[in-house]
Design the sequence.
């Protein structure tokens, strides 16, 4: 007799759990929303493709398409911060209030021209700015390379720096070369 009471109680609890899950699932779905919009350039007013748009503190993110449009789905309801960034533009952090209705964000980015210092990767595995490095660093100017008739990267390096030795690896057309820097 006790077995049947236990089994009946277990079945009732299981059915109650399924019922509770089906009731709370729509409530959980209501706690998210969608943010969509377009990112444009301040100077030209044209849409910008390839802009990273993400919700701060989450893994929710998107990249703008050719029309500068983006859509972020399943964003938690409430106040969120949307980060918009693209190389060559000033990044923005925008506050938004998300609800079940889609939120429209139209973002205008301003160009930001910054000068970057040259970074040299050394044999020690640490990146160092060129001006802080104690060694002599060879630099090739792309303007000189573009003016010369080179077909590959190894031809671009050949005979331009004294410590770089380039040897053909085989006589087959299109085969790579052996590049040695400062000896073997």
Sequence:
């Amino acid at each position: 007799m006790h077995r049947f009471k236990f089994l009946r109680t277990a079945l009732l609890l299981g059915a109650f759990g399924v019922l509770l899950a089906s009731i709370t699932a729509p409530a959980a779905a209501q706690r998210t929303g969608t943010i969509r919009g377009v990112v444009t350039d301040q100077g030209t007013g044209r849409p910008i493709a390839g802009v990273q748009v993400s919700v701060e503190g989450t893994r929710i993110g998107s990249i703008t398409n050719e029309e500068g449009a983006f859509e972020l789905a399943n964003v938690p309801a409430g106040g969120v911060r949307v980060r918009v960034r693209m190389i060559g533009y000033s990044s923005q952090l925008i506050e938004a209030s998300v609800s079940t209705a889609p939120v429209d964000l139209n973002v205008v980015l301003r160009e930001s021209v910054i000068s970057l210092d040259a970074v040299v990767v050394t044999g020690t595995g640490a990146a160092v700015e060129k001006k802080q490095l104690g060694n002599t660093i060879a630099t090739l100017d792309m303007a000189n390379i573009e003016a010369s008739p080179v077909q590959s990267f190894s031809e671009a390096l050949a005979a331009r720096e004294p410590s770089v030795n380039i040897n053909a690896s085989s006589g087959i057309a299109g085969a790579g070369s052996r590049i040695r820097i400062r000896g073997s």
In short: The mean pLDDT is 77. Helices lie at 2-29, 142-146, 153-157.
